[in-house]
Design brief:
By secondary structure, this protein is α+β, with helices and mostly antiparallel strands. The protein is built from 9 helices and 8 strands. Strands 5-4-3-8-7-6 form a 6-stranded antiparallel beta sheet, sandwiched between helices. Helix 2 packs across helix 3.
């Protein structure tokens, strides 16, 4: 195999992981790319050794590895989303006293990419680069509500059988009913869905094409933030997310109001 063809195969395998699925098996990649399984496995093994692909030993399926994540974060930094978001995060932190977070969409997951920590001694913080599923937590549900229907159904299918942090199963029927409400009000709320004692309110961030690309959230704790308090913060977070979206080129519909102004 020439160097050029080897490099091209590496690029095509990495490109296959951009389809929104969280992981892939050798057989399905073989079918998708039209290559023998032995070739697919050889390329995956090389990428695994270099840290761009990771293997789940339990399922024997592959997902993007830590180097791919860092590469993605570097690309995000180059388009200055984090730099643009920082003033909005600081303003949210200053007005609420709570940690403000920027999360970005990555397939069927989100990645935490920036935060400004809250002012309280007991506060919520997130780990940069941490990934989480779109069906749990306000920052994730704020994005899920605005995904195209096919992508939304993919995520809801993954939620079947998933477990919340309190040990209870995700109620997919209730989540499905919650999504139109998130769209109407322009923000999502959550309590103890991913992190015990966490309370969050989040609003979606859109790009110049009107596609949801992330969310801004105010992340507190249930000791201070009950559901009424979270809903009271909703319009503030929504305004900040809309302001950031505008800086990214998003143009809201002129004839609609508040949450209804967000793209379908």
């Amino acid at each position: 195999m020439s160097r050029y063809s080897a490099a091209r195969r590496v690029a095509e395998v990495l490109g296959a992981f951009l389809d929104g699925k969280p992981d892939h098996g050798v057989s399905e990649l073989s079918r998708q790319l039209g290559w023998p399984k032995s070739v697919v496995h050889r390329v995956l093994s090389t990428l695994q050794e270099s840290g761009f692909i990771a293997l789940d030993p339990a399922t024997r399926r592959y997902r993007l590895g830590p180097k791919a994540l860092r590469l993605g974060l570097a690309a995000m930094a180059q388009i200055d989303v984090c730099r643009l978001a920082l003033p909005h995060l600081r303003a949210l932190r200053d007005r609420t006293g709570e940690t403000a977070v920027l999360s970005l969409l990555s397939g069927n997951e989100t990645i935490e990419v920036e935060q400004v920590e809250g002012l309280h001694s007991v506060r919520q913080t997130v780990q940069m680069g941490e990934r989480s599923p779109l069906y749990l937590g306000a920052s994730n549900k704020a994005m899920l509500a605005y995904l195209p229907p096919e992508h939304q159904e993919q995520v809801l299918a993954e939620a079947e059988g998933a477990i919340r942090v309190d040990g209870t199963p995700v109620d997919v029927a209730a989540l499905r009913k919650e999504l139109p409400a998130i769209r109407r009000q322009g923000y999502a709320v959550s309590q103890s869905e991913r992190i015990p004692g966490a309370a969050s309110v989040a609003a979606p961030v859109f790009n110049h094409r009107g596609e949801v690309v992330g969310s801004l959230s105010v992340a507190g704790v249930t000791l201070r933030q009950d559901l009424a308090a979270l809903h009271a913060l909703g319009p503030l977070v929504r305004e900040a997310a809309q302001a950031l979206s505008t800086e990214l080129g998003w143009v809201p519909a002129e004839s609609t109001r508040a949450g209804e102004s967000l793209p379908a």
